[in-house]
Amino acid sequence: DLYTSIRNESDYLNANLYYEYVLSDSLGNVLEKKLLSQFLFDHKSGKPFGSTVLGDIFDHRFLILENYRFEKPGRYSLKYSHKMRTDTLKGILAVGLRVNRHMPD
Known about the structure:
By secondary structure, the chain is mainly beta. The chain has strands spanning 2-9, 16-24, 30-39, 57-65, 77-82, 92-99. Helices cover 0% and strands 48% of the residues. It has a three-stranded antiparallel β-sheet with strand order 4-1-6, with no helix packed on it. It has a three-stranded antiparallel β-sheet with strand order 3-2-5, with no helix packed on it. The two termini are 13 Å apart.
């Protein structure tokens, strides 16, 4: 399973974040590509989603590829790009990838 991890401050100006990820193999072949929208705050109440231990900083984990299998050993790259209207996203502190072994229900 592949997850996007996002850390944001409470002063992030939008309820959601539009972003695209592109997963490529070592030859640059695109294996997966998708545009996603994830809510970081409730769009009606403004209440933040995610977990926090740092007061106004929130951590989120969103599943992007469930039970994904890399077909061959080697190097892979995952690139993120946001698709918001402003170049700089004030309040977004970090974006990362987490890979977990799939655990069936």
